[in-house]
Amino acid sequence: MRAWSSFIRSFSYAFAGIAHTVKTQRNMRIHVAAAIVALVMAWWLEISRNDVLLVFFSIALVFSLELMNTAIEATVDLASPERHEKAKAAKDAAAGSVLVAAVLSVIVGLYVFGPPILQKLSAWLPA
Ligand SMILES: Nc1ncnc2c1ncn2[C@@H]1O[C@H](COP(=O)(O)OP(=O)(O)OP(=O)(O)O)[C@@H](O)[C@H]1O
């Protein structure tokens, strides 16, 4: 019973971390909006199961790295409130990791949604 309650408590801490990041980080809110748009497009364009998996992986990767970025920012602010070369290196590298995932998700978006969107457009436009 105690094991269960500690398991459930650890989930609640994890959800609190996600909620805090959404509340405080503008970039996280942009990622959430982009994820909603991608999921609506996936449904509308009826993309394949494999492509849906790619979209889910991209969303999870960006969300996870933004959460880690927020954790690193908070840790650096605590450890080094004054400016320091290594504090800058840590924050810049964390931000870079989010950028890499965001670029990858744009590439996945073009790969997955590009062909069906072109198909819809060509069906709508007069020949
Ligand atoms: N303690 C510090 N020492 C040196 N450079 C820092 C320090 N804190 C921040 N910086 C520099 O300023 C940049 C922006 O830092 P900041 O903490 O404002 O993060 P942010 O990406 O703007 O996120 P947020 O707006 O959510 O706080 C960092 O990427 C880093 O280059």
UniProtKB/TrEMBL annotation:
Binding residue positions for a divalent metal cation: E73
Q: How is the cofactor bound?
A: Mn(2+), Zn(2+), Cd(2+) and Co(2+) support activity to lesser extents.
Instruction: Tell me, in one coarse class, where this protein mainly resides.
Output: membrane
Single GO cellular component term = plasma membrane
Give the matching CDD domains: UDPK_IM_like (cd14265)
**What family classification does the UniProt entry report for this protein?**
Belongs to the bacterial diacylglycerol kinase family.
Name of the molecule in the record = Diacylglycerol kinase
